[in-house]
Each structure stands twice: as structure tokens, then as C-alpha cells.
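Most newcomers find our protein records easier to grasp once they have seen one. To make this concrete, we reproduce a full record directly below:

…
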Amino acid sequence: MAETHTYDVEIEWTGNNGSGTDSYRSFSRAHEVLATGKPPIAASSDPAFRGDPARWNPEELLVASVAQCHMLWYLHLCAVGGVTVVDYEDRAHGVMTMDASGGGGQITEVTLRPEVTVADVSMTDKARALHDEVHSVCFIARSVNFPIRHEPLIHVQ
């Protein structure tokens, strides 16, 4: 039997302004993403869809999930592959393409731009190459139907 893992989250809408959803403009898209024992994530829809720009939106959270999974697997592959990473930052970018009908859309690509600092110049080639291996093991990358590109920069401490 295959091993499984489960993930339970709750979404709580906090945007009832008094009249519920009696019209498209009458309610806030504010909500919280909750999980037992963790602080809530204040979320909303994208500002293009009447959301609060001060809150996380689902599209940002999806792009963040892709970037997080890539980073965590990359650090693992470096650790077992003899590459000492001393710093890692990513400026991930996602693109959502709207349907011609205007009624929906989908994430069509994510580009990761990790900046990695390694401990020694001898590690740079392997550090760069390991980014190519991540997509075969990253749970999130294997679960989505859009391309994930990466444009890594490798620095030496």
C-alpha cells in the first residue's frame, strides 16, 4: 500500500458587510486560511477581482507553494549531494491567463528566480545543475499542469 499524507486547512469567510452576497459589490472577499496550531493567513481575492491588496490571494499562495517546494527539495538535494548552501532567496513570478470569455482563467506558468550562495566556488556547477533535478521530486511541481521554469543565480560566499 502506498504511503499517504493528508493536509487539513479551513477557510473562514470574514467579508459579510451586513447583507451577505445580495449583490456582487455588497461583500468583501476577505477570509482567513486556518490550520490547527498555526497563525491564520489573512487572505482575499486578487485586487483585480475586488480583493484587498493588503491580503494574500490564492494565486500568490499557489506561486508561493511552488517556490517553497522547489527551495525545500533543492536544499535537500544540496545537503545529500555535497553542496553547502549558505543563503537562498527566490523572487518567483506567476502568470494567470484569463479565458477569452472573461469568466475564468488559469495559472499558465511560474518562473522561479532563486539566488543561491554556496560556500565554495567548486560547488557552483553542481549547485546550478541540482535545480534541474528538483521538478522530478517536488510534490507541488509534479501536481500542477503548467510549466515551471527556473533562472538560478549562483553566488560564492
In short: The mean pLDDT is 93. The beta strands are 10-13, 31-34, 41-43, 85-90, 93-98, 105-112, 114-118, 148-150, 153-156. The chain is about 20% helix and 25% strand. The first helix runs from residue 58 to 81.
